[in-house]
Structure formats: structure tokens, C-alpha cells
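Re: the 146-residue chain
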Amino acid sequence: MNRSRRILWVGLLLLYAGFADAPKGRDSDWLIRVGLEQAAWAQVLYVGVSEGNLRWVDPRTGATLAEGTAGQLWELRRENGRYRAICGQAQVQAERLVAEPMNGGFIMVGASPNTLRRYRGHLEWTERDGKLLAINWVLLDDYLKA
């Protein structure tokens, strides 16, 4: 009987040690980034939202710089080391820009106004070879759904 108790205790300790090292979150909670080279890599990009609102954010501060609505098309360029998005009279400029859909919409981006593609998550940009490359930040599960 004494040997059985020891085996049970050792087994429980090993089980506990295994749980202590287990990841705390689920894989589906991982946020990944995907470069959109095929759909959104050009000197000028066009950005919109499928429904609801579009929020332009400075990722360094988290501040909302501007908001747009579904149906609006924003033209994005890089000028003098800053990103500049323009829609009619509205414009926003920053060293880094993020576009986030609000109220359940999809973010839309393309190299021309007629080739917009829908994406889950939010978008950020980087400059590569003189062109803007859209980076899609998306949850792993949402990426796998697409």
C-alpha cells in the first residue's frame, strides 16, 4: 500500500509540473501579421471599410486621428517620411498609421479603387522598394477561416 501511495504522489506531481509549463492562452488568441504583396503593394493604396466605421490610429500613442464611414475611399501615400491618407477634405498624417474597422466591418485595401479586397483584423503599412506594403494584423483563427 505504501508503494502505491508513492506512485500516486509522484504521478500527481508530474501531472502538476506538466500543467505549470502549459501555455496560458489558446492558439486561437495569437495575433499574426501577413504581408499583402499580391493585393496591396503599390506606391498608392486605397483603403475603405465594408460596413460601420473606419478608424485611423497612431499605433505609438493609440490616439484616434480620424474616422471614416462605409462607402468612403481613402487614398494612402507616403510623403516626406510620413503616411498620408486623404478622403475628400479629410486627411490624416503620421509617421505610422493603422486602419481599424469598427462595428463589425471588414477592412478593404487595394492598389486601385476597383480592386479592393476584404480582410479581417486591422492594417498597418511599411515602405519597401519605394512602394507601400499593407500588413494585415489578424487573429490566427480568423486568418485560417479566410
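The two ends are 57 Å apart (CA to CA).
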